[in-house]
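Hi all, long-time lurker, first post. I run a small reading group and we've been trying to get comfortable going from sequence to structure in the token notation. Rather than ask abstract questions, I figured I'd post a concrete chain and ask someone more experienced to write out its structure so we can walk through it together at our next meeting. Sequence below, copied exactly:
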Amino acid sequence: MRLDGERMVVGIKDAAKLIGISIICCCAVLVCSLFLNYYLDILQIEDLLSSEQAVIFYHAQVSTAKVVCSVSGGCLLLTSVVMLFFYIKHYIDTHKKELGILKALGYSNLKIARNFWVFGTGVFLGAAVGFLGAFLLMPEFYERQNEEGILPEIVISFHPSLLLYLVVLPTIAFAMLAVLYAFLKLRRPVLALLKNDFQSSAKIKRFREGRDCPFLEDLRKHTLRSKKTLVFFIMFASFCFSSMTQMSASMNELASEMMGVMMLLIGVILACTTLLLAITTVIKGNTKTIAMMRVFGYSQKECCRALLGGYRPMSYIGFALGTVYQYVLLRITVDIIFKDMPGMPAYEFDFPVMFLSLAFFLIVYEIVMYCYAEQIKKISVKEIMLE
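-- Answer (accepted) --
Happy to help. Here is the structure in token form:
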């Protein structure tokens, strides 16, 4: 952030930190572009269907495209909005004094907030990459969708409306949403910004209610209460990992190997992105706390347990929700969407795959926690105290 003439500018460098939103938007647009483009192209062959099996398969493919886009697109859209709000709030929290000075100099909330439109560039980058990636995958995707040749040949067409609805409009909408949310978050007294006073009385009251707890447990609870968005990200990371890895194992029989690989990659990428974002923010937001704990003789293990231990149960809950989600979604796909499709294999819950996914998740999660524990060890008490 800087003053440039008479304007406060949120730089592109600040927007470049929105890598999490870019990755989520890329995955959402990739999936939606594949299925929506396929949906629009398959509508062109409806009049060419001659057999009952082709008609059943056609309607199943249309329903699948609608369900995948609605469920996956809706879930990832909600997560992108939450992450956008998180980034803006985090930016404002870390630039309180600068923003307070600007308001003291006479800059209005709207004049400052309108510069937050650049946060929409993360959405544009992710959506554009996802849209282009979808067209690279389309030839293979179309072939896999009609692998048995039940339907007539489906020609890949470019639909400008998809570019508008999946890339252009989301970029504009997120840019406007960023400005609106920044405007609302900036509606605070100048002194509150200059004094770094962002805690509401309700938060202070809740914190004081737990003052009789042991310090480490009190700190763990307070970290969770004060970082509710990060709790959501932790749960979302484990949810994505659980649902996508387990679903991908069933795709060889229910759909295609390509779908399985695509789901696995998307699940792992989303999980790692959101998990790293959440834990990094927790560590950076508590560097002074960690420094003081080390001054008073608390060990590295105690620091990790107080700041990161509370998120572990949340990750298990997210994994359980992801397991239930993928089971319900696949049951709907097999028992409702493809119920009339001859030769469709029955689907039953795969316990070995669930335990394998859980074991892999625990290994990845604990490795990440170990790496951040080592990062806590490297925090310089001297540098923190000199700030």
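A couple of things your group might point at:
The two ends are 20 Å apart (CA to CA).
Residues 85 and 310 are 23 Å apart (CA to CA).
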